[in-house]
Amino acid sequence: MDITPATAATPPPLPGGSQPAPAEQSKAAARAGDRIFLALSRGSGILLLVIMAAIAVFLTVRAASALSHNEGNFFTTFEWNANANPPVFGIAVLAFGTIVSSLIAMLIAVPVAIGIALFISHYAPRKLAAPLSYVIDLLAAVPSIVYGLWGALFLVPHLTGLYGWLNDYLGWTGIFAYHDGAARSLFTIGILLAIMILPIVTSVSREVFLQAPKMHEEAALALGATRWEVIRMSVLPFGRSGIISASMLGLGRALGETMAVATVLSPSFEIGKSLLDPGGGTFAQNIASSFKESGEIGKDALIASGLVLFVLTLLVNGAARMIIARRKEYTA
Amino acid sequence: MAKRIDVSGLSAFYGAHKAIDDISMTVEPRSVTAFIGPSGCGKSTFLRTLNRMHEVTPGGRVEGKVLLDDENLYGPGVDPVSVRRTVGMVFQRPNPFPTMSIYENVVAGVRLNGGRLRKAELDAVVEKSLKGANLWKEVKDRLNKPGAGLSGGQQQRLCIARAIAVEPQVLLMDEPCSALDPISTLAIEDLIGELKERFTIVIVTHNMQQAARVSDRTAFFNLAGVGQPGKLVEIDDTERIFSNPSVQATEDYISGRFG
């Protein structure tokens, strides 16, 4: 048998004149529908930038006016008396509370969410997977004030047992020391926020895991990988950037969550030694709690704290993008 | 190393649909057996029953026996995972793990099978497997670069290296050249000729010249009509199948009268 590689014969050159003339092409691009769509999409893009810039300018201008009146150090002062004369306020407690409660939320929610997402995408029988993902999505539809009420009326009284347990075994670390009292601490906020960001992290991760290429899963299977090994070799590496994006979406929500935190936390302007100590505060909670009673400078001071939150969120997103970009070479 | 495959009365299903019906055949060790036949005749499905990959498809189910020497792959208590460790597979589209380097791709299966090996042992496996896949010279200076950066033909040889790195008994190839250009195809075909010294090879191909070039035995599959299960029409020495097949349908297919 002769070896003749099946190469496609080169097509004969097209008869002259069959190629569209350049004039025809540019005329096609100038059709009304194309023009309208171009204007719409370009306009939307510009609008987005304008809105972002408007928010940034507004925050900066108002914040600057408050900061010029501030008698305390904006970054290190442990109090918020923006309506006093002279006004003294600082974001140290708010920044600490926001970051710590969000980190606790992430530490709890992300592993659980990845577990649920993997269960739905790779373990659960189809009959179970569909209703389960529906229920998870439904969790995202619950208004945050409802979470707040549930947190204040159910979670707070029921967490004292867990607090005692943590104190017994981890109390020696200091950060889990607990002395009696209502469980209205940053730790409780962290748990509540974890439940609130669970659905978004889960559903984004699930979508990414479902898109993991079949051919790489089969490659792992054919090498004799168990189900977990398939996930580790082909699904998780593929989903890595998706997991990061999902977590950042969740973190964004946790950082900015207002009503639920304001309902549960008993705010105070000190940083407790233990995560279980009641008190503390977050940027969003502080704005919600103090806005009504604030005067002109007080409102501007709150806006200044809002600006910090805005920048914090930008930094988080930027960091996430950097992590994703660094892995680009490997994500085919 | 290489083992004999003995299939008897094997049928495979997708849910209620029977994809292949009652297939029996023997594949000799250290030989190349090619499966040919029109699209949808079940040759790929049959191939995937030989390493229990068929049942990974939702609704996939198999009846019958596949003996590897004397061990029934579908016997009670046989773990499909361990079957796939003895019966390796190469797919239609090259599928190196995109997040892994060339080196990590080759040892991916070894790490699963052998647990932890020392670096020197892994290095030896990588060199041996890449040499076995005729890829060593081309990649030995960039083992830590991503496997996805290679050309299609190189990626497919990387996948072959990954499959043979675990020293399987049998190597299944599902149209391994259909996504490759003629030169890469030739490289893989040469490689198959070398690999059959060490492994039992079964290859599905749509390219009849390829079947004629690389295989010792050829099996022709066909189906009676749309929705009907695929059947094995005949299996014989490749030379006979291509010169003087015993069934008229085989001759019609090979001479291009249908399919």
Automatic annotation (TrEMBL), chain A:
GO cellular component, one term: plasma membrane
CDD domains: TM_PBP2 (cd06261)
Region annotation Disordered: where it falls in the sequence: 1-25
Compartments, as annotated in UniProt: Cell membrane
Entry keyword annotation includes Transmembrane: yes
Bilayer topology term: Multi-pass membrane protein
Family annotation (InterPro entries): MetI-like (IPR000515), MetI-like_sf (IPR035906), Phosphate_PstC (IPR011864), Phosphate_Transport_Permease (IPR051124)
GO BP of this protein: phosphate ion transport
Residue span, ABC transmembrane type-1 domain: 95-320
Segments crossing the lipid bilayer: 45-67, 87-120, 132-156, 186-205, 301-320
Listed GO MF terms: phosphate transmembrane transporter activity
Keywords: Cell membrane, Membrane, Phosphate transport, Transmembrane, Transmembrane helix, Transport
Domain of life: Bacteria
Function: Part of the binding-protein-dependent transport system for phosphate; probably responsible for the translocation of the substrate across the membrane.
Xref: NCBIfam families: phosphate_pstC
Family label: Belongs to the binding-protein-dependent transport system permease family. CysTW subfamily.
Protein name as it appears in the record: Phosphate transport system permease protein
Source organism (scientific name): Streptomyces olivoverticillatus
Species lineage: Bacteria, Bacillati, Actinomycetota, Actinomycetes, Kitasatosporales
UniProtKB/TrEMBL annotation, chain B:
GO biological processes: phosphate ion transmembrane transport
GO cellular component: membrane
Gene3D superfamilies given in the database record: P-loop containing nucleotide triphosphate hydrolases
UniProt GO MF annotations: ATP binding; ATP hydrolysis activity; phosphate transmembrane transporter activity
ABC transporter domain boundaries: 5-248
Keywords: ATP-binding, Nucleotide-binding, Translocase, Transport
Designated name of the protein: Phosphate transport system ATP-binding protein
Species of the source: Streptomyces olivoverticillatus
